[in-house]
Design a protein that fits this description.
Elements lengths: L4 E7 L5 E7 L5 E7 L9 E2 L11 H11 L7
Antiparallel strand pairs: 1-2, 2-3, 3-4
Length: about 80
């Protein structure tokens, strides 16, 4: 499996969640929401189920993430 290139990564205000916008090897873009538990040393794990969505631009992926992930895209 080839890796995707992370374009942006934004953490939630409490630092327990993040959204990564990425570019796949085929040139399409996507995003995923991740969670980490400070007491668990295993790191970040996907919780959103959004990674299969495909977008033509990173901007489109970012805007869709803002619509789907309640905390993302808010100041």
């Amino acid at each position: 499996m080839k890796k995707s290139l992370v374009i942006t990564s934004q953490n939630s205000p409490d630092g327990l969640l993040c959204v990564d916008v990425f570019q796949r090897q085929d040139g399409s873009f996507g995003f995923e929401e991740f969670r980490r538990d400070p007491e668990d040393a295993s790191g970040w794990y996907a919780v959103g189920g959004f990674n299969a969505l495909r977008f033509e631009t990173a901007y489109d992926a970012d805007r869709d993430a803002a619509d789907r992930v309640s905390w993302f895209g808010t100041d």
